[in-house]
């Protein structure tokens, strides 16, 4: 695939003006382009869409044991199916059929089962590499997408009827609408001088993929411990694990009985300590904190630590520009809602553009963009409030909070109405 074209050989030389320019061709940008690719302009022709991406994302990438993963809600999987991406991702997505929530050392617990809600899975877990590859495969079938990669936006100039961007390569593009899908440090957000607010949770997330002696059986575990919440998400069998990499803890062979994505919320000091332990020492600490639901840890992948902060843009929209995904918000991973929240950004923006086109309106008009901002405000507020509540409730060992959360877990487990509401939220509805 040519770096400035999709499979249609649509090149930059004959397409300097676009309907939409998307800054960022990662997961959010690719998803945004795919979601818009089926819309028709005022002349009933497919929208002309440009994607500008700094990294050579069109090159082949092979999944590895250590690839970072994302949790996809049932609602997100349905949306990916509607826009033509799920068929490429489903073979690589591990279903979450049950969710076990527990508080180590206490009686509180809750169990959520997909079969009780007439669905095959409550959600799915997939490597980011596979998600990105699925989006690119779906985009390769579209003739109205033009890639500019590797390239970056060096300047943005806003005019009354257009937004103009200049690239590092010297190319100049224009469009009715610029969509910033360019991550937490969004250059477009900075070009527009949109401020952000942030809250430091004084926590870090230690992330790693691990192999276990007992298969996960498609159960996702959320385990609250004295050192912090531990999430163990089910993954498919380990890809591309060489014979040398198979040597595992205590000299035993990695038998691929099970593979999980670990997200362990810790204090920054403890996270740094865990990061520097040997694989054997780390496994012992993890087994002690998590328990033996999955048996022994037989293999530990690369460990990475991320500081946890809530970051929100003060504005969702600007003149002929809107923020999508992490460019708009970065949230705590405790509920696994980050990517799903960004996907709903994409869905709502697509709906706003679709409605504007149906009414023969300017898709970049500020009044239309304000509809997007209004649509996203409530959802983002609810998700952020939920994650903040969970952080406070489940990352604290104060006796009243411990007692309260255990009572809460028990109540959820035995009240069908409350449990159904929780499952609905978990599934992204």
Output the keywords:
429 residues; alpha+beta; FAD/NAD(P)-binding domain; D-Amino Acid Oxidase, Chain A, domain 2; 2 domains; nine-stranded mixed sheet; eight-stranded mixed sheet; 11 helices; 28% strand; globular
Provide a descriptive summary of the structure in words:
This protein folds into 2 domains: 12-62 and 131-198 and 309-389, FAD/NAD(P)-binding domain; 69-130 and 199-308, D-Amino Acid Oxidase, subunit A, domain 2 (D-Amino Acid Oxidase, Chain A, domain 2, 2-Layer Sandwich). It has 429 residues and is an alpha+beta fold. The strands form 3 sheets. Strands 5, 6, 12, 13, 14, 15, 16, 17 and 20 form a 9-stranded mixed sheet that branches. Strands 1, 2, 8, 9, 10, 11, 18 and 19 form an 8-stranded mixed sheet that branches. A 3-stranded antiparallel sheet has the order 3-7-4. Helices cover 32% and strands 28% of the residues. Strand 10 (163-167) and strand 11 form a beta hairpin. The longest helix is centred in the last third of the chain and has 29 residues, at 366-394. The protein has helices at 27-36, 74-82, 86-89, 128-139, 187-191, 268-275, 279-290, 338-358, 366-394, 399-414, 416-426; strands spanning 17-23, 49-52, 69-73, 94-96, 98-103, 109-113, 123-127, 145-148, 153-158, 163-167, 172-180, 196-212, 219-224, 230-235, 258-266, 297-300, 304-313, 317-318, 321-323, 329-330. The radius of gyration is 22 Å and the shape is globular. Mean pLDDT is 83; it is low at 5-15, 240-247 and 250-255. Helix 1 (27-36) packs parallel to helix 4 and helix 1 packs parallel to helix 8.
């Amino acid at each position: 695939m040519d770096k400035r074209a999709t499979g249609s050989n649509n090149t930059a030389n004959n397409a300097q003006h676009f309907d939409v320019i998307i800054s960022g061709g990662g997961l959010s940008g690719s998803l945004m382009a795919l979601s818009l690719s089926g819309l028709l302009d005022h002349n009933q022709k497919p929208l002309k869409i440009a994607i500008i991406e700094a990294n050579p994302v069109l090159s082949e990438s092979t999944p590895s044991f250590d690839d970072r993963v994302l949790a996809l809600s049932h609602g997100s999987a349905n949306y990916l199916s509607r826009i033509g991406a799920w068929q490429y991702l489903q073979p690589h997505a591990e279903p979450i059929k049950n969710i076990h929530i527990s508080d180590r050392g206490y009686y509180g617990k809750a169990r959520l089962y997909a079969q009780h809600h007439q669905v095959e899975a409550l959600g799915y877990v997939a490597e980011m590499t596979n998600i990105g590859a699925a989006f690119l495969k779906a985009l390769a079938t579209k003739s109205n997408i033009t890639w500019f990669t590797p390239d970056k936006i060096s300047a943005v100039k806003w005019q009354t009827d257009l937004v103009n961007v200049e690239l590092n390569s010297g190319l100049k593009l224009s469009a009715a609408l610029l969509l910033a899908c360019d991550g937490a440090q969004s250059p477009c957000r900075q070009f527009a001088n949109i401020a952000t607010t942030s809250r430091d949770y004084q926590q870090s997330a230690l992330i790693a993929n691990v192999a276990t002696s007992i298969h996960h059986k498609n159960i996702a575990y959320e385990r609250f411990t004295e050192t912090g919440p531990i999430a163990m998400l089910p993954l498919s069998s380990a890809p591309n694990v060489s014979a040398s990499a198979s040597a595992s803890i205590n000299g035993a062979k990695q038998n691929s009985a099970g593979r999980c994505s670990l997200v362990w919320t810790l204090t920054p000091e403890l996270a740094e300590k865990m990061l520097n332990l040997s694989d054997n020492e780390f496994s012992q600490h993890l087994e002690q904190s998590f328990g033996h639901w999955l048996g022994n840890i037989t293999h530990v992948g690369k460990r990475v630590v991320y500081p946890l902060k809530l970051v929100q843009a003060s504005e969702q929209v600007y003149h002929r520009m809107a923020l999508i995904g992490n460019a708009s918000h970065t949230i705590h991973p405790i509920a696994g809602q980050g990517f799903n929240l960004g996907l709903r950004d994409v869905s709502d923006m697509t709906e706003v553009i679709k409605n504007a086109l149906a009414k023969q309106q300017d898709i970049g008009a500020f009044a239309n963009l304000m509809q997007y901002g209004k649509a996203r405000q409530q959802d983002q507020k609810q998700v952020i409030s939920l994650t903040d509540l969970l952080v406070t409730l489940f990352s604290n060992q104060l006796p009243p909070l411990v007692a309260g959360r255990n009572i809460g877990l028990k109540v959820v487990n035995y009240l069908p109405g409350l449990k159904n509401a929780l499952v609905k939220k978990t599934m992204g509805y």
